[in-house]
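Lab notebook, bench 4. Still working through the backlog of constructs that have no structural model yet. Next entry is a single chain of 319 residues. Request: give me the structure tokens for it.
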Amino acid sequence: MNSGIILIDKPLGISSFQAVNKVRRKAGIKKAGHTGTLDPMATGLLTVCLGRATRMARFLTDARKTYQGTITLGVETDSFDAHGKITSKGQVPKGLGLEELQRLALEFVGTIEQSPPAFSAAKHKGVPLYKLARKGITIQKEPRQIEVYRFSIDAYDPPHLSFIIECSKGTYIRSLAHDLGRRLGCGAHLSSLRRTKNGHLSVDQAVGLEFFLNASHGPGLERWILPVEFVLSHIPAIVVEPEQALAIQHGQGMSLEAALDYLDEQKPRLDTSNPRYMRILTTGEDGSYRLVCMASWPVRPCDVSDDDRLEILRVWNPN
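Model written out:
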């Protein structure tokens, strides 16, 4: 097994780092990584890249993430989740109903600023914030912009509410839960969380960690290793002739105008109005598509000039 991507359904009580290490050792590969951290209290989809596929992690890290979970009103904790120490308790507003909560959730949808919580993997001078917080040192990091595409509350059984959130990378769901409690004036914390999607990838496609670790080597193990071409299928692509693919691999570039001509000719079903990345494919001897390389758009397509070139990202060697 040289490389590939595994979709793991991470269980409760284990960190993403620990889960990746277990998968790496089972697969017998030295290098591995993931495309988005899950806290120990969170379960669900953990996308694990093995071997040279780790170079492709950036193209999945940027994808939207979808979560479902529960928030408990009336109790705040220092970590903003159920694993933290209780810092305050408040009275849940009498008469609070599902419709009011749904309206409040909509106020968090859109581009908002959010600071990492004190108990997080964000770093201050190279030290994770959670290590400093355990020593009683609280660092307030500068807020950064995140995007919440959807925040819907589908049930309320006081003091617990269940929700679904679709958001950009870098979003702390714990912080959203905390902020929601502050808006209500009673406090709140995240009591459970499960990641269900990473871009077009779903937890329904994932294998349980323990099941994977107990699988026999050979077909029993490799059936869960997905090829890079499949995992990156959500990114717009153009198909070039084998001769041009070889020239690109040997350092020749491609103009943006030519890339747009390919897109227009091949009419991909994916939205390419403002692409960030592009797959360049070619056909193999058996007629199947083969990934040649990844590319990046330095400008908006509507601003393309004759001198603009597609930026070839030398992160993948198909051989």
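Notes after review: Residues 16-27 form the longest helix (12 residues). The chain has a mean pLDDT of 85. Flag for follow-up if needed.
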